[in-house]
Amino acid sequence: MKGRMDLLVTMLIAFLLLSLFSPAVHARETFVVSDYSNPEWETYVRDMIDEYNVVLPATAPQLVYERKEVKECLGTERPDGFPKPTGIILCHNSLASHPAMLYGLMQAFIFLPTDTRTRPEDFLCHEFMHAVTNIKDKPVGTPLRDNSCVWGLSPQLGAFDISYINETFAAPQQKEKHKKK
Predict the structure, then answer these.
(1) CA distances (Å), 84 to each of 60, 112, 125, in order?
(2) Which among 109, 160, 125, 127 is positioned nearest to 48, based on CA atoms?
(3) Model pTM?
(4) Which residues of 62-82 are buried (b: 16+ CB within 10 A; e: fewer)?
């Protein structure tokens, strides 16, 4: 009986020491998607955030939806009345010459179209890939991919997109392995 007590006390002390001196486990980082767009976009945006959160690896932040009062973001350099984004900002900008302004990983303005010709799923999947991973548009002359919403015509994330997301957010030691190949 005494042997078991000694073992239990030793295990308890070891557990306490490990708890005290081990690096703390932090909550997963999040990036806010602030939606200033017309309410008819909300369901599409929420669904797209869910689709991305499912495939984002544990090393990547999660996206969190935040509904804002409808507000157009006019301006050609940076939308008037908006600071540099610390997350993803969705709004309408009829003056924009491009559908997004990227500032870094998960830091962007995405200008949602107001016309009804654009399929919301296609548009959001493509522009979220730019905002989340900072991937550039498909190089001229590169064929379209069947398995991609950013370099192809898929309305949802494809194998190419998911692979690119995983590569973007790979842990540093995994990135080194990819470089050596």
Answers:
(1) 21, 18, 22
(2) 125
(3) 0.77
(4) ebebeeeeeebbeeeeebeeb
SS3 64: strand
**Per-residue pLDDT tens listing for the chain (181 residues):** 565 556 455 545 544 444 444 333 334 689 999 999 999 999 999 999 999 999 999 999 999 999 999 988 886 667 777 878 889 999 988 777 788 888 888 889 999 987 767 889 999 999 999 999 999 999 999 999 989 999 998 999 999 999 999 999 987 655 544 444 4
Q: Do residues 63 and 53 make contact, with C-beta atoms less than 8 angstroms apart?
A: yes
Nearest to 103 by CA among 123, 81, 125, 79: 79
Are 156 and 49 in contact by the 8 Å Cβ rule? The answer is: no
Report residue 180 as tokens: 């050596």
Q: Provide the residue count of the chain.
A: 181
Beta bridge partners of 37: none
As given in the structure block, the two tokens for residue 120 are 């919301």
Nearest residue to 112 via CA among 129, 130, 124: 124
- C-beta atoms surrounding 93 within 10 Å: 22
